[in-house]
Design a protein that fits this description.
Blueprint lengths: L1 E2 L5 H4 L3 H5 L3 E6 L4 E5 L3 E5 L5 H15 L9 E6 L2 E6 L9 E6 L8 H7 L4 H12 L4 E5 L5 H9 L8 E5 L6 H4 L5 E5 L6 H8 L6 E4 L6 H9 L4 E7 L6 H9 L5 H11 L2 E9 L5 E14 L2 E9 L2 E2 L6 H9 L37
Parallel strand pairs: 1-5, 8-12, 8-13, 9-10, 9-11, 11-12
Antiparallel strand pairs: 2-3, 2-7, 3-4, 5-6, 6-7, 13-14, 14-15, 15-16
């Protein structure tokens, strides 16, 4: 449950400057030192002192806000505001000292078309193609290591879901803020809990008339039920921890952990996950963190064969080969030029004569990449 309260300097003390800093995503205190995650500067230690007196007052106030006890017996305290997720572990469990983790999750989209192109997040052709894939109702897996901005990327592309197509989000921690960033859209936001598991929430979705199911993170066996729902003609997004898009099928198979239906489930992955996006970050010459789309691919199943078509490698567009059935879905959506998009037209024009499309015969030679 999210609570509303004003985030004041009196209440957040030494944490406050970092709570207000738009580039800071996490503020962590380990019982001795304060650490900050910054979108530009990475993770660094802060020398600001945190006194025991402040710690007592801070945790007491949070406990009062959410009306929960916090002591040796009840040694974990969690709270959510519209902007923050707060987790506190009592020193009876955290022997290094009382631990506080504050995750910022702002109800806004950090990315814009302009910022993505200006920062080198991805080439204009790739951005146009991904936007067009949303418009053509394809299923996305946003992948990468923890903290690279998978959810932020998904939030950006969620803005291209038509307002009259109901989207249902499923999260344990409410970070998508789908309603706030898409206020005109028909949406339902579900939060899992001890009384509503991920699997239960996914099953519940079909009784809520969705067009899109957005699962905040695929972690375990619930991904099987997500694939089954997508197989009914519902579309969606999810995020996964992954280091290479070619490993996604194996990663999902390991998450499901069932060998009896292995072949069928593997086929489901290629058939009902259309687009893979892998995000990475690096430190530039000025010591600032930069994020970018490192890989992008299509997963495809045709005539009993599962293929992966890599279009982006190492942040560069290496192929414009589009599988035949993906092309057909784009055409049905009225998209004849996949690498162009009205939203990015001010940044073009492009020479579309080099566009390659994979017809059925291309499948005999296997995928590129």
């Amino acid at each position: 449950m999210k609570y509303k309260w004003e985030l004041t300097e009196e209440e957040f003390g030494p944490f406050y400057p970092y709570i207000k800093d738009k580039n800071v995503t996490d503020v962590d205190y380990n019982g001795k030192t304060l650490w900050v995650n910054d979108l530009k500067q990475g993770r660094y230690r802060v020398d600001t002192p945190v006194t025991e007196d402040f710690m007592e007052r801070f945790t007491h106030r949070i406990a009062n806000r959410v009306n929960k006890p916090f002591n040796k017996t009840n040694n974990v305290l969690e709270a959510e505001t519209d902007e923050l997720r707060i987790s506190i572990v009592h020193e009876s469990a955290a022997v290094s000292g009382r631990s506080i983790c504050i995750r910022k999750s702002l109800p806004k989209v950090r990315h814009t078309v302009e910022s993505m192109l200006d920062s080198g997040y991805c080439p204009i052709e790739v951005l146009s193609l991904l936007i067009n894939c949303v418009k053509a109702k394809m299923n996305f897996a946003f992948c990468g290591e923890p903290g690279v901005g998978k959810t932020e990327c998904a939030k950006f592309f969620s803005r291209f879901i038509p307002p009259n197509q109901r989207a249902i989000t499923i999260e344990d921690n409410l970070e998508m803020h789908f309603h706030e960033i898409n206020p005109e859209n028909d949406c339902v936001e579900l939060q899992v809990s001890k009384d509503l598991s991920y699997t239960d929430a996914i099953k519940l979705c079909l009784r809520q008339n969705p067009k899109w199911i957005i699962l905040s993170e695929a972690r375990s066996v619930e991904v099987q039920y997500l694939l089954e729902q997508w197989s009914t003609g519902v579309y969606g997004f999810t995020t996964l921890h992954l280091d290479d898009l070619r490993n996604l099928p194996d990663r999902i198979m390991n998450m499901i952990g069932r060998s009896r239906d292995a072949d069928r489930l593997e086929n489901y992955i290629y058939e009902f996950i259309s687009v893979g996006v892998l995000i990475r970050q690096y430190e530039n010459e000025y010591g600032m963190l930069e994020r970018y789309i490192d890989q992008m691919c299509f997963y495809d199943r045709l005539e009993g064969k599962n293929d992966i078509y890599m279009l982006v490698e190492d942040g560069k567009l290496v192929s414009k080969l589009i599988p035949g059935d993906i092309r057909k879905r784009l055409m049905r959506a009225g998209i004849s030029e996949p690498f162009r998009c009205l939203e990015t037209c001010p940044y073009e024009p492009l020479d579309m004569s080099i566009l390659q499309v994979a017809e059925d015969i291309d499948y005999k030679s296997g995928p590129l990449g």
